[in-house]
Amino acid sequence: MRNVHKRFGSQVVLDNISITIEPGKTTAVVGPSGVGKSVLLKLIMGIMTPDSGDIWIGDDKITAAHSESQKNAIRQQLGVLFQSAALFDSLTIYDNIAFPLLERLRLSSIRAHKKVLAIAESLSLTEYLQNYPEQVSIGIRKRVGMARALITEPKVLLVDEPNTGLDPLDGQEVYDLINACKNQWGFTGLVISHELPEVFQVSERVAMILQGKIIAEGTPSEMIASADPAVQQFLNGRTDGPIKIQ
Ligand SMILES: Nc1ncnc2c1ncn2[C@@H]1O[C@H](COP(=O)(O)OP(=O)(O)OP(=O)(O)O)[C@@H](O)[C@H]1O
Ligand SMILES: [Mg+2]
């Protein structure tokens, strides 16, 4: 991202942000609630447009794509795991996983079938394929969401708040899932989170956003050792400090 600016009315959410996400690594984008993390993700996906600035995914500039078909071509490189897994409740787990292959890549159902069975096997979902999302636990729904995100073999995996609404055990399962998938499929990861330090276990890099700027960037251990009072306040969950609680 280079010089990305985004405002809503008079509220500046992202104030000329520039950041390079290292290929093959996972970067956690962290910051307090309302700071613009989800907006950042939507800009990368081309669901929102910045007021100014450019965003590249590999060599493709999504901010220069104006038609949906141009954007969709670039989005092929992205897999997205949404906050609550965002499955289609009226489709079986099989059909949820097959969806991007049939609807986005327009594969034949025979070719899609092989891929669905293979990824279901890898993620221990085979026994649930004929169930509907509401019939399985949230942990399994997250695995289905991950299967659907990865089945197109994207170069980049985007994850928005992997743990919202989960208890600590289910939450840990999602981190383990991200790490296991990273080892197996090897993607560039971007994980949006305000769960510190838990998110560090899936991150090689961390970027912290505050008041429209990236105020700190580095490895998890560099963040922990940071002298920046805002970083320390956020890491330690203190109410006193430069971050104002709204
Ligand atoms: N479509 C929109 N129209 C107007 N304001 C918006 C819109 N989307 C987001 N905002 C505002 O932008 C700011 C950043 O929102 P965003 O959802 O990115 O925060 P966040 O960092 O993801 O927070 P959380 O940790 O709670 O998910 C908020 O003040 C929000 O109200
Ligand atoms: Mg958010």
The rough form would be described as globular
The CATH homologous superfamily of the domain at 76-187 is named P-loop containing nucleotide triphosphate hydrolases
User: At the third CATH level, what is the topology name of the domain at 76-187?
Assistant: Rossmann fold
Note the main sheet.
6 strands, mixed
From the N-terminal CA to the C-terminal CA, the straight-line distance is: 28 Å
How would you describe this structure to a colleague?
The protein has a domain at 76-187: P-loop containing nucleotide triphosphate hydrolases (Rossmann fold), CATH 3.40.50.300. It is built from eight helices and eleven strands. The radius of gyration is 18 Å and the shape is globular. With 246 residues, it is an alpha/beta fold. Strands 7-8-9-3-10-11 form a six-stranded mixed sheet. The model has no long low-confidence stretch (mean pLDDT 92). The two termini are 28 Å apart. The protein has helices at residues 37-45, 68-75, 93-104, 109-122, 138-150, 168-185, 220-224, 229-236; strands at residues 2-8, 11-17, 26-30, 52-54, 56-57, 60-61, 78-81, 156-160, 188-193, 205-210, 213-218. Helix content is 35%, strand content 22%. Magnesium ion binds next to helix 1.
